[in-house]
Amino acid sequence: MDLIPFNPFKNIEQWFEDDDWALPVISPSSLKEPAMDIYQTDKELIAELNLPDFNPEKIDISVKNQVLIVKGENEKKEEEKKKNYWRKEIRRGSFEKIIRLPIEVDEDKIEADYDKGILKIVMPKKNPSSTSEEKKIKVKTKENA
Fold first, then answer.
1. Is 103 within 8 Å of 46 (Cβ atoms)?
2. Contact by Cβ (8 Å): 123, 101
3. What is the mean pLDDT of residues 113-133?
4. From residue 12, how far is each of 7, 9, 23, 61, 82 by CA, in Å?
5. Which of 6, 14, 35, 133 could disulfide-link 50, Cβ–Cβ 3.0 to 4.6 Å?
6. How many domains, in total, are found in the chain?
7. DSSP state of 1
8. Mind listing the pLDDT tens digit for each residue in 65-105?
9. Using CB atoms within 10 A of its CB, is residue 132 exposed (0-12), middle (13-18) or buried (19+)?
10. Phi-psi region of 93 (alpha: psi -120 to 50; beta: other; left: phi over 0)
11. Would you say residue 5 lies in a domain?
12. Which CATH number do you get for residue 64?
């Protein structure tokens, strides 16, 4: 019986080509963006953003061509030298979140509400009746034409 030497690098090229092992790519800019949930009801598309300690007057929301843009600014505080931080994770400054919406919304009827650090944007669907009802199409033949 022949001994086969162990080679840990034998299939390394195949390992790097395999997409199953890859971790999701997280850009540094995405870490600065607030978390967002988007869901829909029968008549509305709803976006909720986690924005604690933001002044609602300094949040700008716009929708154009099925793209939602949310911009905000948080008060920048001067870092106190006396505090002698061990860890500093609370982010201050501005953000911009841009999301392509999965469906058309009525841009003139969008409403936003800020309560307890959650910004809720309610966007009515453009044609709610066409999305909920099924349209029947009759097949024409020479006999019934």
1. no
2. yes
3. 78
4. 10, 5, 17, 48, 51
5. 35
6. 1
7. -
8. 889 999 888 876 665 666 777 777 776 778 899 999 999 99
9. exposed
10. left
11. no
12. 2.60.40.790
14 domain-assigned: no
Q: Tokens 């948080």, residue?
A: 74
* Helix (H), strand (E), coil (C) string for 36-102: EEEEECCCEEEEEEECCCCCHHHEEEEEECCEEEEEEECCCCCCCHHHCCCCCCCCCCEEEEEEECC
- Extract the tokens encoding 13: 């090229």
- Digit-coded pLDDT (tens) for 25-81: 555 555 567 889 999 999 999 999 998 888 888 889 999 888 999 988 887 666 566
pTM as predicted: 0.62
Q: CB neighbours of 70 closer than 8 A, spacing ≥ 6?
A: 36, 47, 49, 59, 60, 61, 95, 96, 97, 119, 121
Mean pLDDT, the chain, integer: 76
Q: Which domain holds residue 54?
A: 26-77+91-128
Amino acid at 19: D
